[in-house]
Write a structure and sequence with these properties.
The protein is an alpha+beta fold. It folds into 5 domains: about 100 residues, Pleckstrin-homology domain (PH domain)/Phosphotyrosine-binding domain (PTB) (PH-domain like); about 210 residues, Serine Threonine Protein Phosphatase 5, Tetratricopeptide repeat (Alpha Horseshoe), CATH 1.25.40; about 140 residues, Ubiquitin-like (UB roll) (Roll), CATH 3.10.20.90; about 100 residues, Acyl-CoA Binding Protein; about 120 residues, PH-domain like (Roll), CATH 2.30.29.30. About 35% of the residues lie in helices and about 15% in strands. Helix 11 packs parallel to helix 13. The longest helix has about 35 residues.
């Protein structure tokens, strides 16, 4: 029989821990079929030492939600506060009250189906609604407000569709969708409800309380490990402290099944998450529900790992969910700790799958400090209980990884997951000018700065007789494989063993700047010094699968501070030769066609030595700038538009009627003629190049390379990084024009495309400031005028200017640079010498950029 006048449910325990039939915890059935074992935990108020013993069991869904809500124990009834039968106008607890419309349950609000109005009263503990505002009115419902409740602001789209402003309040079991015709009233209710939610004490789940109990029982020092792993002596000391209260720890684990492995489903997350749809969506193609639902789904996915023959795809899916929804990282760590604690078959295939996922998590995400301390304790406990086992080996690997892990931009690729499951490292094979092959071992934590520093310390000089194709291969092929510890070609790039790189390399004395670049046929971008190479491998592998474009990693110059003093017999000169040739192919050397043919002949001499009919011939576009050949072709003549309106109408009808196929055929024939003309021009150009190649008989490869670089160096802009820009406001007041912006070590210059001499040049002493006006506009202040450039490479230009300024200040410490630089220069001055900061997500499409951009 229902209670007369309704019932106001309110459950508050120890300053804000609220449980409304919330069945946290778990229960497991014993092997002999006995009743479930109750899990007990301590529920403490903040700032108090007294404890309350609470009996808690895993929820069983043997009845419907409506039946379960009526089954309330006597202990919970004693905590429920029951108020009067109806609203009282003079109720001092009422914060806000008024008439609101509530959405019909199970229906959709439409203009012709108006929902009923109810009298709503907001108190410091709940949101209640009544049938009317008279004394003795029936209370129809109540939503208890806790710190996990949430409220959504009015949506303009809903107002356009329905004519009402909506206020949505999410509770544990119920969701109130309220409507009002006035925006100010909706805002008033939202602010009031949010203020009540903010005033509530944070809710702590039993898992959080038990984590704190474990931390207290083992001592604060043993769980203070947030950084690098402890040494062996520290671990021994930690183990000694653990032994001080082993009975207490075993009692906690024995009496609380929520901390142990379970084969039953989980109906509630282990950590508190807000109710409702806040933060439920993530960027990308994935669609998610609420955080609480996603946490439960992830636990079901974890349980599927035990029976998976190939767990790699499922592991990657779980990692992707954690990347899209960062609040779930701590939840997954807690679930993995739970499932790896006292499993039915320790070390079995299913248990090892959990440890493999935990390994991948430790190399991808870093948990919060409380969860991290609890995780360290779990790993130490596993190593002590199962020494020399696979679980102990995984625990040791995870301990080391947690000391190095930071945020990842991409989840590990399938290849990286396979390597991590074997507790191995990846191998990146780098090919660059002067080096046949150098395989560097990288981990999930290796940055581009470490690899770049290893190469900078490793350059040497060319030896006579080195095969030509050995030191002229400019690209680095990305590859991932398990590290072979017996291979002598592998070079470790971690800071401790970077000195063990190939002994014949050594670029530390070079004054120039270097960087690692990602390069494909479509784009080229430098890899930031703090960028994880594992993320580069993952992102590039995805691009190769989607666009079928091979991606390569290249070690090259980033900035030139001194090109004259580079020894001709050094590997750096070979790298300089390759970048000069790249500059020529992109059309950034304004010189005569005769000189371009001579450069192509020198390139052939450096590749194949003396002329021979059996020598391999590269494609013409690999020797000669393609844009020069295209410039020879006559521009297509556009058809003159019809003069009168009737003629335009007839032309349109003919184009879409019988004559449409004829016009398309004419265009195809015109394209064929242009391509044929282009082939003829290419053949004549190749013949001229071969004739010049024959004249180089007897010239050695080093001499050919030196002659090539000497010809390119004749252009005054050699050594500058060129950017294609549109000058919005020119010094002479002309309109926008396409220019080259050259960033050099001593000055910034403006070139007209194809012109060898600059229009203007500004030394750094004349530049007062620079920076980005917006995402596509770069501002350069020169004395009393501002130059605005439209470009898609704003970040690259600003970073390169900062790098040159930092290099100047490093070379002249007694004369500090007085130029005010942009905010991007904060990290530029702290980079090691010879390495490019290359910070930021840089991308630019070829051929927009010079040989060093």
């Amino acid at each position: 029989m229902p209670f007369p006048g309704g019932l106001w449910w309110l459950l508050c325990c120890r300053q804000g821990f609220t449980l409304l039939r919330r069945d946290y915890g778990e229960a497991e059935r014993e092997a002999d079929g006995e009743a479930e074992e109750d899990a007990s935990f301590e529920l403490r108020a903040q700032g108090e030492r007294a404890s309350l013993e609470v009996s808690l069991s895993q929820p069983t869904r043997t009845s419907s939600g409506s039946e379960r809500s009526l089954l309330v124990s006597e202990d919970m009834r004693s905590l429920i506060v029951e108020k009067g039968p109806g609203p009282v106008e003079e109720d001092p607890d009422a914060l806000v009250k008024g008439w609101l419309q509530r959405e019909v349950r199970g229906g959709v609000k439409t203009p012709w189906l108006r929902p009923r109005k109810y009298w709503f009263v907001l108190t410091p503990d709940s949101l209640d609604y009544y049938s009317s505002n008279e004394r003795g009115a029936k209370r129809l419902g109540s939503l208890v407000l806790t710190s996990l409740c949430s409220v959504l602001w009015p949506d303009k789209q809903t107002y356009k569709e329905t004519g009402f402003w909506s206020v949505t309040v999410f509770g544990r079991k119920h969701c109130y969708r309220l409507y009002t015709e006035h925006l100010h009233e909706a805002v008033r209710w939202v602010c009031a409800v949010q203020k009540v939610i903010d005033s509530k004490a944070p809710v702590q789940t039993p898992t959080q309380l038990l984590m704190r109990d474990v931390e207290v029982s083992v001592g604060p020092w043993a769980l203070r490990r947030v950084g690098a792993p402890l040494a062996a002596a520290a671990i021994a000391s930690s183990s000694q402290e653990h032994c001080e209260s082993p009975e207490v720890l075993e009692q906690i684990y024995r009496c609380n099944p929520i901390l142990r492995y379970t084969s039953s489903p989980l109906y509630a997350p282990l950590l508190p998450f807000p109710y409702g749809s806040l933060d439920q969506s993530a960027p990308g193609p994935h669609s998610y529900t609420t955080l609480r639902d996603e946490a439960v789904k992830l636990f079901n996915s974890l349980q599927q790992l035990e029976s998976q023959q190939d767990p790699v795809p499922l592991i990657q899916g779980i990692l992707q969910t954690c990347l899209d929804l960062p609040p779930l990282v701590d939840e997954i760590y807690c679930q993995l700790v739970k499932q790896t604690t006292e499993p039915p078959a320790p070390g079995g295939p299913g248990d090892l799958h959990y440890w493999q996922l935990l390994t991948c998590m430790s190399c991808t995400f870093l948990p919060s400090p409380p969860v991290l301390r609890f995780l360290h304790f779990h790993l130490d406990r596993t190593e002590r209980r199962f020494p020399a086992s696979e679980m102990a080996k995984y625990a040791c690997f995870i301990q080391e990884a947690l000391g190095k892990t930071r945020g990842r931009e991409c989840v590990p690729s399938l290849e990286e997951i396979l390597v991590l499951m074997r507790r191995q490292e990846m191998v990146c094979t780098v090919h660059c000018p002067g080096v046949a092959a150098c395989s560097v071992t990288i981990s999930s934590h290796t940055t581009a700065q470490e690899v770049g520093a290893a190469f900078a310390r490793g350059w040497g000089r060319l030896e006579e007789g080195t095969p030509a194709m050995t030191y002229l291969c400019p690209f680095a092929v990305l590859s991932t494989a398990a590290r072979d510890t017996q291979s002598p070609l592998v070079a470790f790039v971690s800071p401790q063993v970077a000195q063990e790189l190939v002994s014949r390399l050594g670029l530390s004395q070079s004054p120039n700047l270097f960087a690692l670049y990602e390069q494909s046929r479509l784009r080229e971008q430098p890899v930031g010094s703090s960028t994880l190479l594992a993320d580069v491998l993952t992102s590039r592998a995805g691009d190769e699968r989607e666009h079928d474009v091979p991606c390569r990693l290249r070690f090259k110059h980033y900035g030139f501070l001194d090109t004259d003093s580079v020894p001709r017999d050094s590997l750096e000169f070979a790298l300089l030769f390759e970048q000069a040739h790249e500059m020529v192919l992109r059309g950034y050397v304004p010189t005569s066609e005769e000189t371009l043919q001579t450069l192509a002949a020198l390139r052939l001499q450096s590749l194949n030595s003396d002329f021979s009919t059996r020598a391999p011939f590269p494609r013409l576009e690999e020797l000669f700038p393609p844009r020069v050949l295209r410039a020879r072709l006559p521009p297509p003549r556009p058809n003159p538009p019809p003069k009168c309106r009737g003629a335009r109408l007839r032309a349109g009808l003919l184009a879409g009627g019988l004559w449409g196929h004829s016009l398309a055929k004419q265009r195809a024939e015109q394209d064929l003629r242009l391509r044929g003309r282009l082939r003829e021009e290419g053949a004549s150009t190749m013949a001229a190049i071969v004739e010049k190649w024959k004249l180089l008989q007897g010239m050695g490869r080093p001499e050919a390379m030196a002659a090539y670089v000497a010809l390119v160096r004749e252009w005054p802009g050699f050594g500058s990084t060129l950017f294609d820009v549109d000058l919005r406001a020119s010094p002479v007041g002309a309109g926008p024009q396409r220019l080259w912006l050259g960033i050099g070590a001593k000055a910034v210059s403006l070139y007209k495309p194809g012109e060898p001499e600059p229009l203007d040049s500004f030394c750094y002493s004349r530049i007062s400031s620079f920076g980005a006006s917006d995402s596509s506009t770069f501002r350069l202040s020169v004395e009393d005028q501002d130059l605005l450039f439209e470009t898609s490479q704003v970040d690259e230009i600003a970073q390169l200017l900062n790098t040159y300024l930092a290099s100047m200040s490093a070379r002249q410490p007694a004369q500090p640079q007085e130029l005010p630089t942009s905010p991007l220069s904060a990290d530029a001055a702290v980079q090691p010498r010879g390495l490019c900061p290359a910070a930021g997500p840089w991308q630019h499409l070829l051929p927009a950029g010079s040989f060093s951009s």
